[in-house]
Amino acid sequence: MILVTLVVFIGGTLWTIIHSFTSSRLLPKLNFAGLDQYERLWGTRRWLVSIDNLMLYGLLSLLLTLVIGFTLAAILDRKIRGENAFRTIYLYPYALSYIVTGLAWQWILNPDLGIQSVVRGMGWQSFSLNPLNNPDTVMYGILVAGIWQGSGLIMIIMLAGLRGIDADIWKAAKVDGIGTIKTYLRIIVPMMRPVFITALVAIASGIIKLYDLVVALTNGGPGISSEVPAKYVIEYMFRAQNLGQGFAASTMMLLSVMIIIVPWLYLEYGGRKNDR
Amino acid sequence: MNRLASAVCTTSLLTVSQLAIAVDLEVTHWWTSGGEAAAVAELAKAFNQTEHTWVDGAIAGGSAARPVIVSRILGGDPMGATQLNHGRQATELIEAGLMTDLTELAEREGWRDIVNPVSLLDSCTLDGRIYCVPINIHSGQWLWLSHAAFDAAELEVPQNWGEFVAAAPKLQDANILPLAMGQQGWQQNLAFGAIMLGIAGPDAWAEVNVEKNAEVAAGPDFKKVFQAAAAARELAKNSNVQDWNQATNMVITGSAGGQIMGDWAQGEFQVAGAVAGEDYTCLPGLGVNEILDTGGDAFYFPVIEDEATKKAQLELASLLISPEAQVSFNLKKGSLPVRSDIDLDAANACMKKGLKILDEGGVLPSSDQNFSPDTQIQIEDLMAEFWTSDMTAGDFQESYSDLIKNAD
Question: How far apart are CA A89 and CA A83, in angstroms?
């Protein structure tokens, strides 16, 4: 087990990083080229656009998925009628692959087939909803599809967390005369910290590997306005037959994950040790 | 006597069984549109008439198919034969010894004498050995015009790019999109290449594309190329289709005036039952400089350690370049054959235009032959950005000449 971990994760990662300093084309070769690949990477507009897009998507998706997931879970937790049915409906999108989600939303957002034509058919002729064909709005179109797919799972995780809260807490809050929303925000949410962290990791990993949704929805278009880093890596490794460039990009992705994760790990685990 | 007889029997049995080993040969390609599928069916039919079987491995879309094909060969799961664009896509695979050497077969059948233009065979050659069979010639410098669209706008069908641009406002008045354009980098790149050839002329084109002279690309004479591209971008505004055949379909149905696309568009017109000269007009070299590039498709045969398979591979190679296959395949696909010694009377008006240009030697190397896949993708990315944004012609020229400077 340890051997597998070492070889597959550490070994594979090191191999990739080492080859990102070479000028490998179709086949990996150890002809070192220094920082050339990185210089080219950060001088490529497509990569810069990809980073911008991922940051926008990541920030909004993280925030909205958490808020929507928690709100849905809280509503279901109020012991509403038909909870099972709603739970199933909200979780269903998660059972679909991103490709299916992408194609479905491509139709929904298509001006000639989807929402726009339906609303216009009902008489509102000036209504316009065509996010995917506009470079300025395309990322929001992808965001809607991503949230539609992902928030159901977060809802379930949150719901499990909420069900784990002792009913006495609620009673105590009621005795003290604290309002429902305030109880959620001030008492329940802080108590659910581990659940939030689980949810955070699930969402964050989905954001970093964002690829298939973009491929199915827009394939990076219009132009290069919805490109994402993972797509850059794949295309330069295989379509452009330039492994070095793809490896450099994937190393940058790893680095950005590390920049976020390492301080967090330190705070989460390093700090606790000091308490004890 | 008895022993001798049995020995003879066994040997003959052995030879018979060796000859008769039927092989299922998997052939991968990305010919999936209507006209292309019809053409590849001709090859499969011919190959199935031998004792072998053609196992079709079609993968839709060249840019999706090539990585799959390459990673299968690299990953030790090679197919029997595969389509690739000859040029530089397979260079490293050949260097790594993963492709079958076809030199013997080529010398026996005299490919060097029959393939025209011979530069196609040069693109299959590495260090003097031949590794692929060119199957067709494709050129990307065609302007396809819809008679229905120009009739609806009460216009004469233009005879060159200048007339087309001049006619565009009237088309727009008639609610017709002047220029259909699939929103994919390679299509936008193809259109730009054709405009470049049309506006700058073959000498300047070759200076930039073959010699990779960035100074020419950045120079004042080349400015009008980028301005023409910016003008074309206006004509293609609101063209929301993705795939090239969807764009071609707009020309067929008359909802778009024209499309810049390779000669493979021909196959779509044919499947739709449209007649060249009556329903549509084709203008090679955009009707300005009647010159075509000689890209195209070729078949490569990954090395497979099995005698029977090797034999079947060589049989297929020989079949692909045979006159019969060349005629039946290229007529269906609308591409030009790689040999000039065959009878193509059945070709339609557009193909005959192409054949005539080929005969007169008006050929240039294709971008697959000029640029590495790496450079091509960078150029395609720039094209995708330019055609969908409001990048100015000046910025476009600057970025493009930067790419040419670093091209390989």
Answer: 10
Average pLDDT over residues B261-281: 89
- Indicate whether A76 pLDDT > 60: yes
Of the candidates B350, B244, B213, the residue with the CA atom closest to the CA atom of residue B290: B350
Tell me if B255 sits within 8 A of B166, measured CB to CB: no
List the single residue in A27, A235, A242 with the smallest CB-CB distance to B96: A27
As given in the structure block, the two tokens for residue A242 are 């330039």
Q: Per the CB < 8 Å rule, is B377 touching A44? A: no
**Is B389 in contact with A239 (Cβ distance < 8 A)?**
no
B23, B312 contact by CB (below 8 A): yes
- Domain CATH number, residue A251: 1.10.3720.10
B183 near A CB under 8 A: yes
Residues B106 and B175 in one domain: no
The total domain count for chain B is 2
Taking CA atoms, what residue in B is nearest to A242? B374
For B122, half-sphere exposure in the C-beta direction (CA atoms, 13 angstrom radius) is 11
Length of chain B: 408
Residues B54 and B71 in one domain: yes
For chain A, what is the domain count?
Answer: 1
Task: Tell me whether residues B373 and A239 touch, CB distance under 8 A.
Answer: yes
Q: Least CB-CB distance to B70: which of A45, A235, A238?
A: A238
- ipTM of the complex in this document: 0.81
Q: Residue A96: inside a domain, yes or no? A: yes
End-to-end Cα, chain A, rounded Å: 31
- B 360-379: CB under 8 A from A: 372-374, 376-378
Q: pLDDT by residue (tens digit) across A46-62?
A: 999 999 999 999 999 99
User: Is the CB of residue A23 less than 8 Å from the CB of residue A244?
Assistant: yes
